[in-house]
Amino acid sequence: MTALAKARTGSAGLDLVLRFRALGLVVALAVLVGVTTALNPRFLSAQSVRDLLFAAAVTLLLACGMTVVVLTRGIDLSVGSVLGLSAYVTGSALSATGMGTALALGLGLAVGAACGALNGVIVYFGRVPPLVATLGTLYVLRGVVYFIAGGTRINASDLPRGFLDFGSGHVLGVPYLFAVSVLVLAAVGVFLGRYRAGRDLYALGSNPEAARLAGVPAGRRLMTAYVLSGALAGLGGVLYAARFGTVDASAGYGMELDVVAAVVVGGVAIFGGAGTALGAGLGALLLTVIDNALPVLRIDQFWQQAIVGALILAAIALDRLVSVRAARALRTKGSHVR
Amino acid sequence: MPALEPDPAPAAAPPPVPAVSLRGVAKSFGAVRALRGADLDLYPGEAHALVGENGAGKSTLIKILAGLYRPDAGAVELDGEPVAFADTAAAMDAGIAVIYQEPALFGDLSVAENLFIGRQPKGRFGLIDRAAMNRDAAALFARLGVPMDPDRPAKGLSIADQQLVEIAKAISRSARVMVMDEPTAALSGVEVERLFGVVRALREDGAAVLFISHRFDEVEALCQRVTVMRDGAHVSTDLLADVAVEELVRRMVGRDLGAMFPKQDVAAGEVVLEVEGLTREGLCRDVSFTVRAGEIVALAGLVGAGRSEVVQAVFGIGPRDAGRVKVDGRELPAGSPRAAMRAGVALVPEDRRQQGLLLDLSIMRNATITRRHRLSRFGFLIGGAERRAAADWSARLNVKFGDLADAAGTLSGGNQQKVVLAKWLATGPKVLIVDEPTRGIDVGTKAEVHRLLSSLAADGVAVLMVSSELLEVLGMADRVLVMREGRIAGELGRDEATEESVMVLATGAA
Question: Quick one: CA dihedral A236, A238, A240, A243, positive or negative?
Answer without folding.
Answer: negative
